[in-house]
Amino acid sequence: MGKSLIYLNEDLASSIALRFAAQIVKQTGMKLQTIHVEEPEKEEQAGTGWVRRTWEQGLIEAGRDSVQRLLKTEKVDCSFAGEAKVVVGDPETAIMEELLHGIYDLYIEGYLNTPHSQDFHDLLATRRLRHMSCPVLIVKNLVPSNRVLFLLSEAVDSTQLIQDFTQLFSQAPERPPIEVTLFDYRFMETETLRFLDNGNSASPIHDAEKLLMEKGWGEPEVLIVQGTPEQAAHYLKDYGLVVSSYPTRTSPRAELIALIPNPVLLFKQAVQPEKE
Amino acid sequence: MSEQTSILILDDEPIVTKRLKPSLEKKGYEVETFTESKDALQRIRQRTFDIVVTDLKMEGMDGMQFLTEVKKRSPDTEVIVITGFATMETAKESFQKGVFDFLAKPFKLGEIAAVIEKADAKRRGR
Amino acid sequence: MKILLAADIENYSYVAAQEAARFAVNTWADVTLLGLEHADKGTHEISQRLAKALNTYIEFFTAPSSPFAGFDDRSLVKQGDKTWEMTASGQEGRKKLRVLVRRGDALENILAQTWEDEPDFIVVGGAVAGKPEWLGEINLPQKLASTAPCSVLVVKEKKDPETVVCCLDHDHVSQESLEIINQLVTQHRAQLKVVGIADGKGLAGKVEAKMNEVLRYYTERGIRSWVELVKSEDLSQFARNASASSLIGLWLGKQSLLKKIFSKRMLEQLIGEAGSSVLILK
Fold first, then answer.
1. Domain spans of chain B?
2. Is C127 exposed, middle or buried (0-12, 13-18, 19+ CB in 10 A)?
3. What CATH architecture is B6-124?
4. Residues of A numbered 1-60 whose beta carbons fall under 8 angstroms of chain C's beta carbons: which are they?
5. Are C127 and C14 in contact (CB under 8 A)?
6. Mind listing the pLDDT tens digit for each residue in A193-240?
7. Among B41, C12, C35, C75, which residue's beta carbon has the most beta carbons within 10 A?
């Protein structure tokens, strides 16, 4: 059975992430592992030997309590892989180590959206996310919708994205009632968003469409769209989840991923620099 | 009051029932409060109330269904609708179903008490 | 629900009256329409222009299908030295529309009526910069929002916002304010965005916890709600951008002196600079 790792703190971003995580691990048939990192202030760093162990133990107990409080408040109803893991130290290192030692199919983290897209780009540039080998789900908000949108562009291997996404659901108890949209995004400075003709049936988006149907996910809605990231972000607001590949460099698609307020699920893919 | 007026209050927000009950009891009414529509429904099947105050939007059962049930069982019961999500349509539908008044939240205790007094006067004047 | 609409003869009051009437008709609220006039007008009668404006505003409320239907044979009766009340017949509607006129200092008169009526919120029009303002009172909406004991809706335009954006910088949120937002969101079929205002140290833990509570309250009631974080120094720009399609709200609670100063600055920015209507929640 697959496992998801969720990084929790006792805060709003974690509350939102936890609520969404409970839903997605149930749908995928995965188990959820929680991790919390107690990051001591520099002046707090205490001694060596027994003194240090006792001090660390105190921090771990406090951390475990805060995760328990969060789980209790959110009344999370899903399968857990085990007790909350509580680590003292630097969150980047602790999460990367946990991902190396445990075998995880998905990493989940909450994020409070801001009007500055750079804040989200900074998050994507953190070591823990850049070096992550599994898909990353960043929960910015909860959108009560069963509509999932695949954000595609020339830089995205769309069939690989569909393969990876459906693989996440390979152990699902049943096919979740999801309505899929394939959204081929092309940057252009326009007054309003332009919806283009679906056109050439041999294009990658139609390969993705065929693959989804072959895998039994039904016929997706296909949209080929031109506009600015801001216009597209506004249009995508009603989707419960946006799925794309992890952006590795600045691009209109990366900007769009940063601007959307929805939860985003990002899969690592081989970089296609000339296209992004 | 010659005969105690009985009031049932149904609202899934405990804060509303908690505020209303003591204030109305002080005025001499007999008050029963419910936060679950299924419990309130069970109660109206056991006995009639002179006045029913119900929220329109609750989990489980729609308040409109509840007031329909109240009026079906006891047409003389005066129903007062309270709602946090008022629209012209819900107000009209409520009046078509014979409610006495329609109050949008927020309201002060004095406002609902005044409406209850009017409903009680109407009932006693019959 | 009780609404106090304070209006003079200017265009912003016309727009505010339209919006107040739309809201009141949908929520079946009790309404007091308070007409305001300069102290230097004659002592016997109110001006023709105000009487005409009030009649126009009353029409917004009294369409045949409205709970305020009727209101015929109108007559303004002097109540005191500087107050008048309108009498009318044929109010077969179920809700009460009370029409008053007070002459003198606009802010003082609105506040006096507020203490008398105890409305859930006050509706006033917000003047566009450079245009005539509230009987010579500069920044009346801002002053009213700071001093009124209840919530204040400053109407700047007639529109259905896509989103009601409510900003929070402290942890006091009244049940009444949550319910007013419910009604606004329902009426406009809008979404809700709860914005936490972060200072230099980030978003205060208490504010974050309150945002979570507010978010839970609305999601449990089926209102689509978003959360966002905005730095206090970016608030002005944020409000300008959001005002194109949103109604901007600010929770203004009982606060420490420091917070009061912080919020006063935010309030002036919001009301003064936002192009949209602004809701100050108490």
1. 6-124
2. buried
3. 3-Layer(aba) Sandwich (3.40)
4. 11-12, 15-16
5. no
6. 999 987 665 677 888 999 999 998 999 999 999 999 999 999 999 999
7. C35
In CATH, the number for domain C2-155 is 3.40.50.620
The top-level CATH class assigned to A147-267 is alpha beta
Q: Which residue of B has its CA nearest to C93?
A: B101
Q: Rounded distance, CA C191 to CA C163, Å?
A: 5
Q: Check CB contact of A123 with chain C, cutoff 8 Å.
A: no
* Fold classified for C163-281: Rossmann fold (3.40.50)
Question: Cα separation of B97 and B66, whole Å?
Answer: 11
Residue in C209, C212, C230 nearest the CB of A115: C230
- Chain Cα centroid distance, residue A198: 28
C-alpha pair distances (Å), A139 with each of A22, A236, A257, C248: 12, 15, 12, 25
What is the ipTM score, two decimals?
0.87
| Dist. CA C67–CA C97, nearest whole Å | 9
Chains A and B touch (3+ CB pairs under 8 A): no
Sign of CA dihedral C137, C143, C149, C155: positive
Domain ranges of chain A: 3-139, 147-267
Task: Judge contact between A108 and A17, C-beta under 8 A.
Answer: yes
What would the CATH number be for the domain defined by A3-139? 3.40.50.620
In Å, what is the CA distance from C256 to each residue of C100, C145, C172, C261? 36, 17, 12, 9
Residue with tokens 């300008």: C240
- Rg of chain C, C-alpha, whole Å: 19
Which residue in chain A is spatially nearest to C162 when comparing CA positions? A234
CA distance C58 to C61: 5
How would DSSP label each residue in A132-179? --S-EEEES------EEEEEE-TTS-HHHHHHHHHHHTTT-SS----E
Residue C171, pLDDT above cutoff 90: no
Residue A114 has pLDDT above 90, yes or no: yes
- Taking CB atoms and an 8 Å limit, are C28 and B84 in contact across chains? no
Q: How far is C249 from chain A (nearest CA, A)?
A: 17
C182 near B CB under 8 A: yes
